[in-house]
Amino acid sequence: MADRILVVAEDQEGRLARAAWEAVAAGQSIARAFGAAVVTAVAGANVASLANELAGAEISESLALTSPLLEDYTAEGFTAALAPVIERQRPRFVVFSHTYQTRDFAPRLAARFSKALIGDCLGYRREGDRAIFVRPVFQGKLLADTEPLGDPPCFVSFQAGTFREDSVRRSAQPAPVTAIAASLSSEAIRTHPGERFREAKQTVDLTQADIIVAVGRGIKSPENLELAKKLAEVLNAELGASRPICDSGWLPMDRQIGSSGQTVAPRLYVALGISGAIQHQVGMKGSRTIVAINKDNEAPIFEIATYGIVGDLFEVVPALIEEIKKAKTR
Amino acid sequence: MKIFVCLKQVPARDAALRLNAEANWVRETDLSFEINEPDVYALEEGLRLKEKHGGEVVVATLGPERATQALKEALAKGADRALHLSDPALQNLDAYATARALAAAVQQEKPDLALTGLQADDDGFGQTGVLMAEILDWPHSTIIMEIQAGEKTLKVKRELEGGYFQWIEVPLPAILTIQSGINKPRYATLKGILAAKNKPLQKLSLKDLGLPAEAVSPRQRISKVYVPQKSGRVEFLEGTAREVARSLVEKLRNEARVM
Ligand SMILES: Cc1cc2nc3c(=O)[nH]c(=O)nc-3n(C[C@H](O)[C@H](O)[C@H](O)COP(=O)(O)OP(=O)(O)OC[C@H]3O[C@@H](n4cnc5c(N)ncnc54)[C@H](O)[C@@H]3O)c2cc1C
Ligand SMILES: Nc1ncnc2c1ncn2[C@@H]1O[C@H](COP(=O)(O)O)[C@@H](O)[C@H]1O
Question: Is there a cis peptide before residue A153, judged by omega within 30 degrees of 0?
Answer without folding.
Answer: yes
